[in-house]
Write a structure and sequence with these properties.
alpha+beta, single chain, Enolase-like, domain 1, 11 strands, 2 domains, 12 helices
Length: 282
């Protein structure tokens, strides 16, 4: 049962509304409405931010792109800026649920809800994203990697709201995003792989790997990334894949799903790197 409903007209009114405890923010509602249907009780007031114009839009800068938190997956997918400058995120948003969900669900909601299967998070982590958090009289910028906690927790402080997300462009990188689900549409990720590689004359300059729906906390495989910097790609493809699987186990332990997820992760990494190894230099 909803006891109190508030619909702020702008950012400052929103910040005033969240000064006190006991509130729930709704943007697209694609997660919250399911939770309400399943019996979740909203304590305090429900704050609808879906019509705040300042929370919508995409801005292009020299080496990064800023996306306002209230921008929908559909808007990101169709954005010419995203298609040109951050296509890996555009692909991720195109894989979210159905057309209806993409047109309602927001990237900010996907991040704050921090589900293990969130489609937009792996490519954002791959692009060294940071989040801007607004509160009364203060803005705070935090690495997305630090903002996301274990088991759906996020580092939102009292009175803060997610305002925007800024991601670095993957210039000079090969990139790939693969989502594995049980069906082609309306699919919840069983496993996601976001991977990027910068190489010169066959030597790895930088490798980035971020699996989704495999870890208790979203994150990149930094140990594996660092281990193979400066090595010839053709000589270590199998080793990279094996290292990635081992690092996943070290971070989250072996789970009942590991039996099928780990071979899939290994196979996707090998297939992707072998394909890139056969291409001319990017």
């Amino acid at each position: 049962m909803i006891k109190s409903f508030v619909k702020p007209k702008g950012i400052q009114e929103l910040i005033q509304s969240i000064k006190e405890d006991n509130y729930t923010i709704i943007a697209g509602g694609t997660d919250l409405m399911v939770e309400l249907h399943n019996g979740k009780e909203i304590k305090g007031k429900l704050i609808d931010i879906s019509t705040i114009g300042a929370l919508k839009g995409i801005k292009n800068y020299e080496d990064e792109v800023t996306i306002m938190a209230g921008t929908t997956h559909g808007e990101i997918e169709k954005s010419e800026i995203i298609k040109k400058e951050l296509p890996i995120l555009g692909k991720a948003c195109s894989l979210v649920g159905s057309t209806l969900i993409r047109n309602r669900g927001t990237i900010g909601g996907n991040i704050v809800n921090n589900a293990n299967c969130a489609d937009s998070i792996p490519p954002l982590l791959l692009c060294d994203a940071v989040v801007c958090l607004k509160s009364f009289g203060r803005d705070r910028v935090v690495r997305l990697d630090d903002f996301l906690g274990k088991n759906g927790a996020v580092a939102l402080e009292k009175g803060e709201v997610l305002y925007s997300i800024t991601a670095k462009k993957l210039e000079g990188y090969n990139w790939s995003l693969v989502k594995v689900g049980r069906r082609k549409s309306l699919s919840i990720s069983r496993l996601t792989l976001a991977i990027a590689l910068k190489k010169r004359e066959g030597i790895i300059e930088e490798l980035r790997i971020c699996p989704g729906a495999m870890l208790s906390k979203h994150g990149r495989l930094y140990e594996t990334e660092n281990k193979f910097r400066g090595k010839a790609l053709k000589d270590c493809i199998e080793s990279i894949a094996e290292s990635a699987v081992q690092e996943v186990e070290a971070l989250s332990g072996r789970r009942w799903s590991s039996e099928y997820k780990e071979p899939v992760l290994k196979g996707l990494i090998i297939r992707t790197l072998e394909e890139w190894g056969q291409k001319h230099e990017a």
